[in-house]
Structure formats: C-alpha cells, structure tokens
Amino acid sequence: MLGAFVTDFFTYETTKSVVVKSWSVGIVNRIIQLLIIIYFVGYVFLYEKAYQQNDTGVESSVMTKVKGFGYQDNQVQDTADYVYPPQGAGVFCIITKVIVTDNQTRGLCEEVRIPLSGSVVIPAETEPMVDVNNFTIFIKNSIRFPMFDVTRGNFPQHMTSKEIKSCSYHPVRSPLCPIFRVGDILNSTGQDVHTLATMGGEIGINIAWRCDLDWDEEHCRPQYSFTRLDAPFSHNSVSKGYNFRFARYYKKEDGLDYRTLFKAHAIRFDIMVTGNAGKFSTVPTLINTVAALTSIGLGTVLCDIILLNFMKGADQYKAKKFEEVK
Ligand SMILES: Nc1ncnc2c1ncn2[C@@H]1O[C@H](COP(=O)(O)OP(=O)(O)OP(=O)(O)O)[C@@H](O)[C@H]1O
C-alpha cells in the first residue's frame, strides 16, 4: 500500500497535444473562445475600462445661495428670514412653517416645572409657505481628483452673470445651469410641496462626477440627481418630517431678557458629491490583458469534459490523451 503510494507520488506529468479532428468539438471550442474574447474586449475593456487607473477619493467644496420671495401670514419673507444657517453651506434648511411662542422670560426656581414661562403664552402657528416652489437654489461646487490633479467647477467658466440669473436647471435642456428651482427638485423626487412644507423633510441633491480623463477635461461634467432622504420614515406614526427649535433674544426697557421661541418645520437640503475619475495606466492594462489571455484557455476545460465524457468513442480519446510511459 505504502509502496503504491510512493510510486504514484514520484511520477512526472507533462502535457502532450492531442489534435482532435472533430467538427462538433471544434465548433464548441471556437464559440467558447469567441464568447470569452467578446466578454473581455466588449465588457471588461471597453465598458468597464479595465485599462484605466481610478480615483474615487474626490475632494469637494459646495456653496449655496437661495433666493425668492415667499408670503406667510401676509408677510413677505426673503432669504434672510427662511434660510438657516445663512452661510450657504452644503447642508441648509428652508423654513416653511413656524410655531411661535412670544414673550418667554426666565422664571424663578419655584417655577422650575415651567422654567421658561412668563405669562402662559399660546403658541401661534403660521401657514406653510408653499411659495417655496418658486425659490431658486444656486449651487457652486468645485472638485479635485488628487491622483490626477484635475480640478473642475460645476458650471462653465464663460458663463456670465446674466446667463446664470436667467437659466434654470433641466436635465436635458440645460444640464449645466447651476440654478435649481425648488419646485423642479420636489417634482423629480415625487414629493408633494404642501405636505413637505407642513411637516418638513430632507431632500438630497447628489452631484456625481464620472470622468474619463483620457478625453479632454471639458467632458468631465457633473450629473445631478435628487432623492427624498428621509423617505423611510414618511409612513411612520412618529417623527414624520423635520423640525428644530431656535430662539431670538430681546431686552425689555427694564433690562429684563425675554425671548421668542420658534419651532421651525423646514425642508432640509443635503448636497452630496461623489466622483470617479479614470485614466489609462500600464499596470491595470497589463494585469487585465494577462487575465484575458489566460481565460481564453478556459475553453479547453469545457471541451475536454465534452470530449472525454459525452462524445462517441470517449474511451479512445481517453487512451490517446493519457498515456503512461514506464
Ligand atoms: N438662488 C439664486 N437664484 C438665481 N440667481 C442666483 C442665485 N444665487 C446667486 N445667483 C446669481 O448667480 C451669480 C453668482 O452669485 P454670487 O453669490 O457668487 O454673486 P453675488 O454677486 O454676490 O450675488 P448676489 O446677486 O446675491 O449679490 C450672481 O449673478 C447671482 O445674482
């Protein structure tokens, strides 16, 4: 038993080519090779661009500015009233409804159970501001792909102030206009402005940069898409929408501080930037070419299985293929 194992172990296998003149196996072999070549050339190289090195670590900065007039309880509201925080960051809120509690003063210790009470004030609720549909958001986004040291901005350099002021983003008609009508954004996410203005909610604006840097940089352009980010909670019984509280403080003539408390329902916009740039590089090209060439050999495996198991005269092929030399 041990002897047989040792003789089996100390053998040497070397390949020998057997040419099989059979139409059926020949055709199967060529078809498999063709499929593998089509897969590698068409999908791996042309579609997935396996000859490129990729940079997904995009560096980005976003600036925003909202404009438009709204009417709330017969009062005109402008940017300074409804945008929070006002600095124009990548995440900002447009306040659409407020519940106002006026004249709160700090109470004494005995009144600790109602710590912020003056006289008991009943909060006043404003109407939701549906004019938000006509507001416009200006988005200025600059990005950099550090691996290739390429910087891009989301609107063309030659765009004039007049062009910017008069355009409005449309995915087909003006895909590079940096001014977005809130109504258009809400429409494309399928949201109803009235519900959103009443309860608040969060809208995501995604800016995707997919750049093939083997072409001119001019082709490296942003693509925008819009989603409702808090959609999973929209049917919950609790915490529908989005709100936050803030206060404004005043001093009375007698020196006493008092404040007005606002509970604000707002549409929160969150601008997210993603990027992927690719450029020709020898290392991935070599690795993938070798992988492609090796894979072409896979056809033999399948043809061997057919030849040695399912063809007429399989035993004869087996005898020809495996030959023992003493
Ligand atoms: N939300 C917006 N809707 C329409 N146009 C806008 C909006 N925000 C900015 N713009 C216009 O885009 C251009 C660039 O804006 P940017 O804020 O950089 O310049 P600005 O001269 O300070 O703008 P502003 O007109 O607010 O004083 C300006 O012409 C500006 O009027």
From TrEMBL:
Record's bilayer topology term: Multi-pass membrane protein
Disulphide linkage map: 167-177, 211-220
Molecular function as annotated in GO: ATP binding; extracellularly ATP-gated monoatomic cation channel activity; purinergic nucleotide receptor activity
Residues that bind ATP: 65-67, 136, 243-245, 263
Signal peptide from the UniProt entry: none
Transmembrane segments: 27-46, 290-311
InterPro entries: P2X_extracellular_dom_sf (IPR027309), P2X_purnocptor (IPR001429), P2X_receptor (IPR059116), P2X_RECEPTOR_CS (IPR053792)
Keyword Membrane listed: yes
Top-level taxon of the source organism: Eukaryota
Subcellular location: Cell membrane
Reaction catalysis annotation: Ca(2+)(in) = Ca(2+)(out)
Coiled-coil ranges from the UniProt annotation: none
Keywords per UniProt: ATP-binding, Cell membrane, Disulfide bond, Glycoprotein, Ion channel, Ion transport, Ligand-gated ion channel, Membrane, Nucleotide-binding, Transmembrane, Transmembrane helix, Transport
Pfam family, one: P2X_receptor
GO BP term, pick one: response to ATP
Known glycosylation sites: 134
GO cellular component: plasma membrane; postsynapse
Family: Belongs to the P2X receptor family.
Name this protein carries in UniProt: Structure specific recognition protein 1a
Organism per entry: Gadus morhua (Atlantic cod)
